Amino acid sequence: MPPKKKAAKKKAGKPGDPEESPLDPAELNKYLELQVQTLQRKLMMKTEDALRARASENELRSRVMELDRDFNEEQQRTFDITSDMTRQYKAMQEELLNRINQLENTVADQKEDLDKAQQSFEELKRTKDEVIAGKDEQILELKRKMEEMSKEFANMLKETLEKMTERIELTNNQWENEEDSPMMRRLEEFSLTGNGVAASS
Predict the structure, then answer these.
(1) Contact 20/14 with Cβ under 8 angstroms?
(2) Taking the CA of residue 119 as centre, how many other CA atoms within 13 Å lie in the half-sphere pointing to its CB?
(3) How many angstroms separate the CA atoms of 197 and 201, rounded?
(4) At the N or C end, where does the chain have fewer CB atoms within 10 A?
(5) Is the pLDDT of residue 51 over 80?
(6) Are 15 and 23 in contact (CB under 8 A)?
(7) What's the rounded Cα separation, in Å, for the pair 15 and 93?
(8) Residue 15 buriedness (CB in 10 A; 0-12 / 13-18 / 19+)
């Protein structure tokens, strides 16, 4: 085994250590003053840290309160905007519904008027067709009657012409056979009388 190392020498202890030699009062007083100063500096540092922490805490608390206030204001503003938009939406929706109802009523009325006009037109057309059909029938009847009357008149003219022809032929035959008949004499007298009147005039 390697040889053990020698134990290190003990360092000089702090003043006041009972294992060390006692200090004189002046050194002890100076040592205690240094300890007090050290503790004061530490206390000042801790106090400053505490103050800084308190300031940071106050600043953070103030910031949180400000953010909370801003949040509440924004929430209220959002609520007001939402309420106003909701009110406007409901008003527009109600207006549009009323307008739609009015248009539907107008369309229904116009459809009813159109149906009535269509019915009137169909009835007028049917009446016109009936009148035209009646007039056509009357025209056809008149044409038929005119054709019948024309035929009858033609037949009458034909019969009259035939009778007049027969009479003329009969009269001519009688005149040829009876030149000295009373009728001839009267005609001659009339002719003479007519010539005398014309001469005197």
Answers:
(1) yes
(2) 6
(3) 6
(4) N
(5) yes
(6) yes
(7) 93
(8) middle
| Residues, the chain | 201
Q: Which pair of tokens denotes residue 37?
A: 């100063």
- Please give the average per-residue pLDDT across 85-90, as a whole number: 91
Stretch 33-61: mean pLDDT: 90
Which pair of structure tokens corresponds to residue 66?
């400000």
Q: What is the pLDDT of residue 152?
A: 85
Q: CB of 27 within 8 A of CB of 42?
A: no
Residue type at position 30: K
Which range among 70-74, 88-92, 142-146, 170-174 shows the weakest confidence by mean pLDDT? 170-174
Tokens for 11, please give them: 């360092």
Of the CA atoms within 13 Å of residue 134, those in its CB half-sphere come to 6
Task: State pLDDT tens for residues 107-127.
Answer: 999 888 888 888 888 888 888
Closest CA to 22 of 30, 10, 14: 14
